[in-house]
Design brief:
With about 170 residues, the protein is an alpha/beta fold. It has two domains: about 30 residues; about 140 residues, Ribonuclease Inhibitor (Leucine-rich repeat, LRR (right-handed beta-alpha superhelix), Alpha-Beta Horseshoe). It contains two helices and ten strands, in the order ααββββββββββ. The strands form two sheets. Strands 1-4-6-8-10 form a five-stranded mixed β-sheet. The chain has a five-stranded mixed β-sheet with strand order 2-3-5-7-9, with no helix packed on it. The chain is elongated, with a radius of gyration of 23 Å. It comes from Hevea brasiliensis (Para rubber tree). Its main location: membrane.
Length: about 170
Amino acid sequence: MSAHIKSRRTFEAGFTGFWLVTMLLVYASEGLNSEGQYLLDLKNGLHDELDHLNNWKSTDLTPCGWIGVNCTSDYEPVRLNICNNRISGSFPVEFGNLSSLIEVVAYTNNLTGPLPHSIGNLKNLKIFRAGQNGISGSIPAEISGCQSLQLLGLAQNAIGGELPKEFGMLGV
């Protein structure tokens, strides 16, 4: 009888271990959603001198609890507010992958370089405020892809050149 009890306990311990490992693998395979990964790409391309974005972690399932990020009920980031944080660097190309963004507020930082052409992929973007930075170059023609754009705030930057003719297609 004692052999049967030992066998059963061994089976139960083995089954419990198998179940635990399976659940951990399923949980680990989910990982950060794609929009969260794009936001991490953005953060990794910037220098956050004062560590304002310190809770942006790849181990989170979504970016919805991150500082400066507001999401829909479907966990898609729609607002990004990183203003007044002394953040420096350029917007990476991956910025254009944040397809659910409606509003970006990034004024009064030390952002530099040109706006990426991929900004045109942000079809839902209504508000883009990045004044008082060091953004340079010209406004890319691809900005006409921001079909919902209502406000483009880029005052006090180093933007030059003429507005692209495609800009006239927007309701700004």
